Amino acid sequence: MPSGRSAGSLAGRSVALFGGSGFIGRRVAVELVARGASLRVASRSPRSPDQMRYRRGDAAGIDAILDGVDGVVHLIGILAPHGSDDFMAAHCDGPAAIAAAAQQRGIEDFVLISAIGADPASPAAYARSKAAGELAVRAACPAARILRPSIVVGPGDGFFGLFSRMARFSPLLPLIGGGHSKFQPVYVGDVAAAVAICLARPETRGGLYELGGPEVLDFRRLLEMMLRASHRRRWLVPMPWSVARLEARLFELLPRPLLTRDQLKMLQRDNVVAAGARGLGDLGIEPVPVDAVLREIFG
Ligand SMILES: NC(=O)c1ccc[n+]([C@@H]2O[C@H](COP(=O)([O-])OP(=O)(O)OC[C@H]3O[C@@H](n4cnc5c(N)ncnc54)[C@H](OP(=O)(O)O)[C@@H]3O)[C@@H](O)[C@H]2O)c1
Predict the structure, then answer these.
(1) Of the residues 40, 45, 76, which should be mutated to test ligand 1's pocket, given the most ligand atoms within 8 Å of the CB?
(2) Is the CB of 184 inside a 6 Å radius of any atom of ligand 1?
(3) Beta partners for 17?
(4) For the chain, what is the mean pLDDT?
(5) What's the CA gap between 262 and 202, in Å, rounded?
(6) Measured from the CB, is residue 149 less than 6 Å from ligand 1?
(7) Does 211 have pLDDT greater than 70?
């Protein structure tokens, strides 16, 4: 599927991707290479010669990765604390250290992937840490571009991916909180194009963009569309918030929980682009609708 597709050549540019091995990072890598950039991908477990070892907190690693690059994209993120990786470390201290090192080297093209809902007053620790990260990165590197996506969808995503796996063996799918939470799903290729355009266009410096697709859809509608696209019929069963909280509390006992109480707090707020926010249109990107994304995922 074509993505974002306005001018924005990165020929001759060298870009470091922190979190470039993840779902969005892999797509950003493809987009940047297609536009002519060379990449340095930082990963905890490098899998190819263009990847360099990096674990959050490794200052020497940051220096080695930034040496010779002229753009940086920060995509490291977690959905639940794990070991020494708490939300503030992953979403605030980590990117702030990289932004400060980039600024010291005179690298102004820094893109931070934050999230819609970033808010210092949010009840969710994830959202508070994203807001703190935005502030800290801006303080270190005033020209940083901040991109806040709604849920990001495409092959390998965490939303349709999770529920379609569940639908393979379960006759019913849970409508958490009744299925009324609103989203504005954005195609991963459009997020990647937005990153590329931010790196390519100096006029985006200092900008904040909220990235949402063309439709606002609730949780129930998204599951219905997914089931239709994957040719499955399943019962959609409302799950009250109180039951979801109980289930999340149990999941949190696992090292990689499928659902947490913090995520439920995020789900209790609509995840849509704020009125008046700059977005994909301001970057010259016409967003791909969810039906087209589902065709790409399920054929
Ligand atoms: N997916 C969405 O719907 C969505 C929506 C809004 C915002 N976002 C934000 O977008 C960003 C990317 O999301 P994603 O969906 O691509 O996540 P993902 O697939 O889980 O990828 C996370 C990335 O972070 C890296 N990472 C995690 N902990 C690390 C650590 N301690 N040190 C170094 N690297 C570490 C992982 O690298 P390894 O290879 O080393 O594991 C991986 O590359 C995140 O900041 C997320 O909050 C995502």
Answers:
(1) 76
(2) no
(3) 41, 73
(4) 95
(5) 36
(6) yes
(7) yes
For residue 76, report the distance from its CA to the centre of ligand 1, in Å: 4
Domain boundaries, the chain: 14-152+185-213+272-287
CA–CA separation, 106 vs 104, rounded Å? 5
The full length of the chain comes to 299
Query: Cβ(54) to ligand 1 under 6 A?
Result: yes
Residue from 75, 112, 119, 191 whose mutation best tests the ligand 1 pocket (most atoms within 8 A of CB): 75
Q: How confident is the model at residue 6 (pLDDT cuts 50, 70, 90)?
A: low
Rounded to 5 degrees, φ, ψ at 115 are: -160, 145
Phi, psi of 16 (to 5 degrees): -95, 130
Task: Quote the distance between the C-alpha of residue 251 and its chain's center.
Answer: 22
Instruction: Work out the pLDDT band at 49, boundaries 50, 70, 90.
Output: confident
Question: What is the per-residue pLDDT for 251?
Answer: 93
Cβ(44) – ligand 1 distance below 6 Å = yes
Residue range 201-229: mean pLDDT, rounded: 98
Say how many CA atoms lie within 13 Å of 106 toward its Cβ. 1
pLDDT of residue 256: 87
Judge if the beta carbon of residue 22 lies within 6 A of ligand 1: yes
Taking the C-alpha atoms of residue 51 and residue 56, their distance in angstroms, rounded to an integer, is 15
- Tokens found for residue 2: 């074509």
Q: Which of 68, 66, 93, 65 is nearest to 78 (CA)?
A: 93
Is this prediction's pTM over 0.90? yes
CATH fold of 14-152+185-213+272-287, please?
A: Rossmann fold (3.40.50)
Residue written as token pair 């993505």? 3
The candidate with the shortest Cα–Cα distance to 186, out of 219, 157, 222, 211, is 211
Alpha helix stretches (DSSP H) within the chain? 23-34, 59-66, 87-88, 94-104, 125-140, 160-169, 188-200, 219-229, 241-251, 261-267, 290-298
Task: Name which residue sits closest to atom 26 of ligand 1, judged by CA.
Answer: 76
Tokens representing residue 97 in the block: 């250290």
